[in-house]
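Long-time lurker. I teach an intro course on protein structure, and each term I like to show students one example going from raw sequence to a predicted 3D structure in token notation. This year I'd like something fresh instead of my usual example. Would anyone be willing to generate the tokens for the chain below so I can use it in lecture? Attribution to the forum is fine with me.
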Amino acid sequence: MKTLSVLVLAFFALSAQAQFKNRPLTKSNFEEIDFEGLVRLFLGKDARPLNSVEGIYLVSCTVTRQGGFLANPHREKVVRKKENYGKVAILKYYTNSKREFIEVSLTGKPSVNYPITGEFNVLSDDFGFIYKHYRPRESDWVFTFANPDQDLFECIATETRGKRTIRTKLTYLRIYPSNAAEEKPVVRR
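-- Reply from a regular --
Happy to contribute to a lecture. Here you go:
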């Protein structure tokens, strides 16, 4: 009798578990928008003039090495090359006077908080920008962008370690707002 009641209890527990497993996930009744969609809405407003550097960009990186022990000092070797490895948003930063623009990483899983990976400051006469890239547990890299009015701009940082010269080249390709076509923000239902 005791084993029969245990078997009946186990049967009901397993059937209840199967019912909860097959139940569909509840969705929100409201429209949802991701952070990239919010950035697109923010940049698409007509209420204020858009700064020349604000937008959403794809970032590519090339690291080259020159010189070193028993190496030709005039030969450059590509150590690492990453095409479109990150997506970032560059936005005007109104709360702090030390930095004029911030770079927010859009790469990775959607989350509540997005990391600020760098800051931009305008050079005199809007000729270019000084970009400080934050690196965890290392010193920050400083890049200079010239002629940022285009949809593609590049910068190079050079670091010397002994007899080696290491150059890091960043390429930013603007994907929103682009001059070619207007896009709508990403809205999910």
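Some talking points for your students: The domain at 33-188 is CATH 2.40.128 (Lipocalin). The longest strand covers residues 76-92.
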